[in-house]
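With this grant's support, we have settled on a layout for protein records. An illustrative entry appears below exactly as we store it:
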Amino acid sequence: MMMKKKLSGYSLAALTLAMCTQRISIAVGNIFYGLAIVLFLVDVIQRRRRGETFHLAPHVKHYFWAYAFFALTLLPSALLSPDVSFSFGKYLNSMVGRIVVLPILLFLDIDEKAIKKALLCFIAFIAFDGLCTFGERLITGADRAHGLGDGWLRHASIVATVFPASIILWLQKAEKISHRNGLMVAAILIVLGAIGSGTRSSWVGIFVSVILVTAESLRERNSRIVAVLLALSCSFAVIAASPALSQRLSSISNVTTDRSNGDRIEAWKKAAVMIQDKPVFGFGILQGGRAYLAHYRTKADTQGLHHFHNIYIQTAVDSGLVGLMGLAVWIFASFYLFRHVENPYAFAGFCAWIGFCTVGMFDYTLGMSAAVKTLLFMTGCALRLQDGKQS
């Protein structure tokens, strides 16, 4: 029994380390991820031999069916792709390799306390990354800092996905959480990291989450939300104090002189034509960008974007309206899974998806392994803690 508990604990620790290191080094992150999977499989096999059975609650089963439906809707675009080996490999990596995060979190023989520790450790690490990112910007004077990783867009999605949990759990007085005030500090550092990276999509994702959290806090008459709003106001003051950051904030709605925005719009216009040309199964997984550059791009797109910086448009171009339908079903199922927002963990899961989907309107977050695994990690933790609290 003790060895069984240890294996589950080691697997959870390896998974948490994988989440923390995946943006620093893909190789290191994958090593920890692989270790977590191996330990999980050994643990499950040993428990099965002891006669233990595994069950999922009906609502969780329905969620996996929704994901299976999504996977099936993408399969034709992998098999009918002009580059089948490439597209099918990407399909297996994205649809099979990443989802393993959820079974690990759902089936490990660990208690609620261990899941909370893993979640809090991950939030603390993202906060430390935020501190490093903001510190790098102050020290180097660079307009955009990288922090502990090398991808601004990955950082944006991860930040928008993790940030809501920090303030939601801090706001819950009734929930027993160690180092509660540290969560508010973490939230501030995460926001500073988003400011330091200068990634506007993360700013939008954070802002949308704060609106939802504020609305729920007002409904519950939780006065602690005032502190969150004051902290957010201070972050706007930090942006206003920097001409470069102020320019980036004002450029969010600029689709003319700001070519980062304008080129996206031009690509989206042509994406509509591409969807009309191949409406059912699309151009093939990750083939839409190639077809766009070869046959659809106009001079108005000054950068020559390799993808459409939008998970919905990219899915529709790559996998057709069938794939877009599958994505919509999975997203809807995810929100439905966490519909009981009066539960703080359900609300954290709900807002994690809000943040991811919001950033996904401006960046192709589904193509970023670290971003999707982070989303699934937050989903799994929220689901375990939500169901544990309800039971």
Notes: The two ends are 24 Å apart (CA to CA). Residues 128 and 364 are 25 Å apart (CA to CA).
